[in-house]
Amino acid sequence: MILGFHSIIGMYGFWLPNDPRGSGSDYVANYELYRYGRATKTTSRRSVAAVPHDHGARLAAKETLDWPAVKLAGKQRQQIVAGFAKACEQSGYVLHACAVVPDHVHLVIGPHEREIRLIVGHLKGQATLALKRSGIWPNAERPVWGDHGWNIYLDSLSDVRRAIRYVEQNPIKEGFPKQEWDVVTPYVQR
């Protein structure tokens, strides 16, 4: 039985399809980016973020993007969460943890009848609307999100608790203060 999902959603430019550490992509659609290598599809169920790699080559590949990689400022992160709250209000999603750092988002989402990719798409859509309507997004044409994220199915109480701890600690690990958002509903074991 699925008890929830740990979703990691990258901002535009956060994780490229040919990242040397691996990616979830099957192909690289941009020719300039393809010059830095083919897609690096991984089937690992563990994070590959700490895998040693050529950091300089990864940053050089990012220079080929049409837009600079997104780095959210504080007020922009607040608007992202306001959009998440709107999507939750519209569809009854429950967020048990939320961390928004400058280049990616971690969420623990409770079970729902809607497929997880549709939930994440709805959350991203409402967050984008909130961000752009706020007037603090630099250019309406500039993308906010990367194409794909990662959705990890949580099927045990220990998985849910571990994911929540991970998400709560993520901003601290990234050098930011602990985050507390009104949209988060504490997890209650059923």
Break the fold down into its secondary structure elements and pairings.
Blueprint lengths: L3 E7 L20 H4 L20 H8 L11 H18 L3 E7 L2 E6 L6 H18 L16 E5 L2 H17 L17
Antiparallel strand pairs: 1-3, 1-4, 2-3
Helix pairs in contact: 3-4
How would you sum up this structure, described in words?
The protein has helices at 31-34, 55-62, 74-91, 116-133, 157-173; strands at residues 4-10, 95-101, 104-109, 150-154. With 190 residues, it is α+β, with helices and mostly antiparallel strands. The chain has a four-stranded antiparallel β-sheet, with helices on both faces. The protein is globular and about 50 Å long.
Overview in brief:
The chain has 190 residues and is α+β, with helices and mostly antiparallel strands.
Q: What is the averaged pLDDT score?
A: 87
H/E series, N to C? EHHHEEHEH
The CA-CA distance between the termini, in Å, is 12 Å
Low-confidence stretches: none
| Biggest sheet: strand arrangement | 2-3-1-4
Largest sheet: 4 strands, antiparallel
The percent range for strand residues is 5-15%
Helix content estimate: 25-40%
**Dominant shape:** globular
Label the structural class: alpha+beta
* Count of DSSP-assigned helices: 5
Work out the radius of gyration.
17 Å
Number of strands: 4
